[in-house]
Design a protein that fits this description.
This protein is of the alpha/beta class. The chain has one domain (13-250): Spore Coat Polysaccharide Biosynthesis Protein SpsA, Chain A (Alpha-Beta Complex), CATH 3.90.550.10. It contains 8 helices and 7 strands. It has helices at residues 26-32, 52-58, 72-85, 105-113, 137-154, 170-175, 187-197, 220-241; strands at 13-19, 40-45, 62-65, 90-94, 119-123, 165-169, 202-206. It has a 7-stranded mixed beta sheet with strand order 3-2-1-4-6-5-7, sandwiched between helices. α2 links the parallel β2 (40-45) and β3. The two termini are 24 Å apart. Residues 1-8 and 256-261 have low confidence and may be disordered.
Length: 261
């Protein structure tokens, strides 16, 4: 699949930051972004109760505010919608909790700029021992099982699917019906399943990660719910692919192949 955003002499790169109570780490995350590689940074505050909004304004970010907490997926829906409105050619989603290294942003956007792929994932499992970096053992085992299952269902061989550091071409966000997806954490996986369903290519680049008290981290119970939601997602996708039960979020196909009525 050829991405329309690729091959341009100049691509507008927009970083989107889905934020919720990120006051302790927002400034250090933003300061580490290589500004020479980015045209615009958009932050969506999802009803934070701390000083996230205040700090974002001090940093002079373009800020969009949710009146209440819509959830991680609901936050990203606003992020991507506003990035498209801003004319982005490449959109990078970066968590403002400083868990992923912002200085590696050029590595994420380079394959899309070069026309090599449509989606880039920053993978923790391509660099170093993630458990030595601080990943809890139960998260490690859950990640490994879910990644194996998703690779099996989608016919891929990715190192992981569950990263909060990813880049998309504009075409991906224009064609993937992400507004139909969940407002919860499974949103990320729904996006990837839809991208694969539409035939977009996915590439991974290695990124180290940090685990520290201020970084966001789901509890064991929340992680179990997340894992079960992914199993349910894959089951829905298989039922749709086998033409047994239509699923609206997968009733999509590349816009450039649509025929006029």
């Amino acid at each position: 699949m050829t991405t329309q955003a690729r091959g341009k002499a100049a691509c507008k790169v927009v970083v989107v930051m889905p934020a919720y109570n990120a006051a302790k780490t927002l400034r250090i995350t933003y300061d580490a972004i290589p500004k020479e590689n980015v045209d615009q940074v958009i932050l969506v505050d999802d009803g934070s109760s701390d000083d996230t909004l205040k700090i974002a304004k001090e940093l002079k970010l373009e800020v969009f505010v949710h009146a209440r907490n819509f959830g991680y997926g609901g936050n990203q829906k606003t992020c991507y919608t506003e990035a498209l409105k801003a004319g982005a050619d490449i959109i990078v989603m970066l968590h403002p909790d400083y868990q992923y290294d912002p200085t590696l942003l050029p590595n994420l956007i380079a394959p899309i700029k070069a026309g090599e792929t449509d989606v880039v994932l920053g993978s923790r499992f391509l660099r170093g021992d993630v458990m030595r970096q601080g990943m809890p053992w139960w998260k490690f085992l859950g990640n490994r099982f879910l990644t194996w299952l998703e690779n099996y269902v989608l016919g891929l061989n990715l190192a992981e699917y569950h990263t909060g550091y990813r880049a998309f071409s504009r075409t991906v966000l224009e064609e993937v019906p992400f507004l139909l997806n969940s407002d919860k954490f499974v949103f990320d996986q729904e996006m990837l399943v839809q991208a694969v369903h539409l035939g977009f290519s996915i590439k991974e680049v290695p990124v180290p990660t940090r685990y520290f008290p201020e970084a966001s981290s789901a509890s064991f119970r929340a992680s179990v719910r997340y894992g079960l939601s992914i199993v349910a997602l894959l089951a829905r996708y298989m039922l749709h692919r086998w033409a047994l039960v239509d699923q609206k979020q997968f009733q999509c196909f590349p816009a450039r192949y649509k025929r006029a009525d």
